[in-house]
Known about the structure:
Number of strands of chain B: 18
Structural class of chain A: alpha+beta
Shape of chain A: globular
Number of helices of chain A: 16
Strand content of chain A: 15-25%
Shape of chain B: elongated
Radius of gyration of chain A: 23 Å
Distance between the termini of chain B: 100 Å
Structural class of chain B: alpha/beta
Oligomer: heterodimer
Strand order of the largest sheet of chain A: 6-8-7-3-9
Amino acid sequence: MSTDRLLSDGPRTVNVGLDLFANDLEADGHPVIRVDWRPPQTRDRAVLSALARLESPDHAGRMTAANDTAAARMIGAQPFLVDVVPAHEALPGLDDRMILHAGPPVAWDAMCGPMRGAVAGAIVFEGWADTLDRATALAASGAIRFEPNHHHDTVGPMTGLTTRHMPLLVVENRAHGNRAYCTINEGLGKVMRFGGNDASVVSRLHWLARELAPLLGTALRASGGIDLGNIIARGLAMGDEMHQRNVACTSLLLRELAPALARAGAEPDALAECLAFMAGNDQFFLNVAMVMGKAIMDPVRGVTGSSVVTAMCRNGTDFGIRVAGTGDRWFTAPVEMPRGLYFPGFTEADANPDMGDSTIVETVGLGGFAMAASPAVAGFVGAGRASEALDFTRRMWELTVTRNPQWTIPALDFAGVPTGIDICRVVASGMTPTINTGIAHREPGVGQVGAGVVNAPMACFEQAVVALDAELAR
Amino acid sequence: MSAVANRVRSGFYLDSVALMRLSAALGAEAGIDEAVLMIGTETNRDLMRDAGLLTGIGEAAGPADLIIAVRAVDEIAAEQALELATTKLVAGRDVLGADTAARPRTIAGAIEVSPDANLALISVPGEFAAAEAQRALAAGLNVMLFSDNVSVDDEVRLKRDAAARGLLLMGPDCGTAWLAGTPLAFANRVRRGNIGLIAASGTGAQEVAVLLDRAGLGISHGLGVGGRDLSDAVGALSTREALQRLVDDPGTEHILLISKPPGSATARQVFEWLANCGKPASACLLGVDAALAAEAPIPVADTLSGAVAALTGTSQDEADTTGIAASDAQPGTRRTQVCGLYTGGTLAAEAVVVLARAGVAVGDDGHSVTDLGDDRFTRGRPHPMIEPDVRAAPLAAALADPDIAVVLLDVVLGLGAHADPAMTVIECMQAAGEDRPLVVAHVCGTDADPQNRSLQVAALEAAGVIVASTNAAGATLAARLARQDRAP
């Protein structure tokens, strides 16, 4: 005997398709909820059959269990900001004349303007060439090895370049023992992450390595590590979403570190210069949020059979994702152009295509996924009103395995951020992850020209569905 | 020849994003080339200066001030722009009024919003329907699968999964259902009672439901199982679950199955279930072989009205002819053919059966019955129940055909159907000449339907249509009228 109460209770209907059916139910006062249904974007039968197999009763149970494990690892992570160390100490694989960059693998020939500009600057910074022209020639000659940050437990914003003598923030995920790394945010305007490479850029990088990094490292070690999960939780209640808005978390971090910074032994003027540098940059915490995201996601890379996305990143040419059940394979597609608002004097024609490892922030459920926590940022969405910010998070809930009970959003009655992007849900719904991003000028070194929303390309998720299906069939 | 102007508001703070939105809104106003609102930090002043938007007034501003900068066609326009900007700035913020929550995009998302949902009504294009039905089942929902063009393999897979989860899957191609008195999709407003229907297809269930209603009886529930459920390939998977639900339902005291004849293996199985289900049961198997019907362990009728007659206690013959007054109508002497133009597939099928019994064999002698709702007519066109004008051209052609004695029609009412299905018929009648076939129609509906059966009947009769009381009665009358010439 069925325990289902459809006949005794009457239908409480989810209407998927023709609105006229829902209209009639509603007119008679019968409970009905309408789904704003879209078909999957692909017409490729191979993708749809792979998806059908993954969703079939035979496979769904195993995948659900694997995804639950993946989500539990994300929620159970314990990321602590513990140190600042030179890259050559932290990354054994980072050799001489090797440059790590944001996004999936890309060769010199395919790099966008800002990334090439940044490469030239990085080569001069490391002393492998003494002028930008010679640096560019060196890069073009094949003498430099380029690898993604992600291949070295690292992330970087925008051009995201990482080389041996750059100081790196260190986050330790104490639940799993793994570590991740990211450079320190340089500030706004003419900086290497936007392709800046002149003497001021290089000298700032030297200053960071010589002055700020040792001070920050000493303070962090003395503090025993800063609990980042806690800062995120508080920041969400203060209007941050940790991609486009980091001012609250920057302030909370600086406040927690202030005593240790003061005791770290620097001269007052040097201490003041470091404090001013950090305090003057509303986006200082972005890099901390990014390396936290990397430290949270890396343990999920090992969960076999899971359809959860473990990384999303862009190199200004391609967007790349990785999925737990397919290991370290990249699934790439051309990046999309952000839609947003531009600073005075700039338009879409000036915009560089989407770039950076900062989408690790959305990967852990923040940024565009936590837009409901940051209604002011919602202004970036076309003609969006603050009240529409909530819908962005609601839509992303539909793409994820669960919600994070430790990172909650007051405006959604303290519901948790969307956690564990599921490639099957992405392909099935026709909806892709929404990302809040800065927009760089397409010419190297000009800097940020606006901010907006960009979507991860559907093609990445379609390829991943086919690959995961093949993997599980083995 | 443009002009730049600045205004500074001291001690005014607005979030940079809100300011960017305001800037964009102002820039879109007529006469304004560019408008920028920014807090007066050095970086921002540099930006505005590089863009040629900063005057001495703006240069003097500090980080605690808000700079409004505009470039317009001339100085007057620039000043007006500054006024407008100031107005927008001080205007109250949007009040967060009605809930602007957009609809969920997925079934799972819908359940998050409404956790007590128990049914997915799926009417997406057929190529996506099986996947959505699978998702609904996985989410614990029963499914009414309105969509057609679902493969047999998918149907079997879905129905096995539904059975494993204890869920009911109605369909595919299930256009009609009633659950606890709630009509779903194309269904009529009918009395609630104690007869549980299990129907393969839509208009069969509709006809039975409205005829029961007219007889003062009612249905407890009407469950659809799809046109292929009783084939041997599918093996009555949904019928079995539907039957179990009706057996468990205290409000159901009689169970009626409506279908075309089942596959032979499935027939045995289904008859056994019905005979042993513990409640009185009967079946309408359209056009069933008389011998099979006689052997069946439960009463089996071969027409819809016959099945209803068995429940209301009237005889088959009476049911088929009830309501037909002795008609004085006669077609012209040359006219011999019956032409059925139907919008409901099961009604068309019943008409074929009844015509045959009355000596009119469809396919012979130019007799025809066409289901205009069939796939081959509806590809890329609306279904005639939704858009009755689809029938206008074939009906006009039939009315102009000198060989046709009787045109036989269904006019289907109810939720989901067109607001005035009779109108197309009436318009064709009015446009036809004096010398035309007789037109017999059955209006499948109740007075409680949005279209109101009595009103539709009155309009049709006023236009010269002979309205029969049931679909079977209409077909019987059509046969008699067509054969009057050839009666010995």
